[in-house]
Write the structure tokens for this entry.
Amino acid sequence: MNSYRNAVKLLSENSVKNEFSNKGPEHAAIVLEYMLKETKNEIRFFSGSFDKTVTTNTSFIKELDKFLSSGRKFYLFLESLPPIAEQSPALAKVIAYSKKSPNNIIYKIIPDEFVSELKLRFQSGNVYHYAVSDDSSYRIEIDKNNFKAICNFNDSDIALKLKEIFDNHFF
Amino acid sequence: MEEYSTLLAPFSSFFQLAVAFNFSYVASKQLRDSLKKGFLHSAHTLESLYEEKKNELEAKLEVLKDEDLASDDKKNIKKELTIKLDQFRAEYHNLESKIEENQDITALKIEPLYIHTALISLYFLFLGGIEAINNTFPRNELFTLLTLSSIYISFSYYLAFSSSHKITAAFSSSITIIFCIFSILHPVEIPPSFTLNMTKYIPNILGLIPSTNLFFFPYSYISNHGLLFYSLTLSFFPFVLASVSLLVINFRLEYKFKSRYTKHLQEINELKSHLDSLSETRNIIKNFSGSHK
């Protein structure tokens, strides 16, 4: 696991333009952790419910906590908001911080139009969860069950498109 | 002959500088390192480029673990990328050791020469004092020492570059002291000229050997100014030679490794783009449309 972490660290820190696959909850957490770490201004998440499987990872939670208290912007689009008892610790943290800094940390439930636009834009007709950091890095989850995703730490072309769709319906 | 009788004394500050420079080079590792790094700057830049690319390729191969490599094509590309990584690693280490090896020659192996030049610079200062007292330029003493010193320096350099044997600092200082004492006690008088006529040594029975001089060196043209400037040059000689050697080494290493580096990089990029083109998941990104409107 350390060698994978070191590899992701190097790719993210040096903003290496390299498209790579990412599979399994542990590897997903590592990529998301480094996306948070390398975000300069803002990060956007489109997720089901900020699921426990990935977000309970200790390093990820630690980085999320650091991010939320840093003053950088965190925008979260959720498919559904679970009841408090079923919320993941990460989601609970986001909700708590959004009360403290409502301008920087915002979470919303997706409108139907967002799903329609995603279906149109991804020519496969599927809706994929994704995270996009600043204007450069992204992680698109193409297989929810296996947490399989495509990532890149330096591809402004795709990142800007993902950001545009997100912003069209978030603000 | 020269009209000036005191030539060494006015240049005493240069000799003092040479003493200070040479001794501080021997004593200070920091000074040695900064000289080495300065002249081998491009080679070091290339070394760090190699390291960066090697680490990047390692990382790319590591994240490939999550790629579905079911097809033989993909497996072969991964294998080729791994081979490339090994080649990169080997060349990076090769470059690293070449830089170190050459630094050792120019910095450590010739270190005793800096002691030698520091001591002869001190001796030049002493001769400057003798010159001021006697009001005569110590021509023969200087000639003797310069001749001996030139032979010793050439021999030391030859050893440093061609053999693993190293002249020690103790040997270098002892031989310098012997040279100095010898040149003061038995200075060689500069002959008016040196000629080499073979007929003097070989009986010219058939008259085949030309009777003209084969070699003629007019020692009388060695002026006092010439001796003075040669002394000054010799005082800073190890610095000059080390700098020239390091520059040559730098260019040689850069030329040799840069072309290989570029070639490897090109091959790696081709392999990676081939792998990307085989990936089914990439189609999701490829078909991701630019604008909704």
Remarks:
- The longest helix of chain B spans residues 237-278.
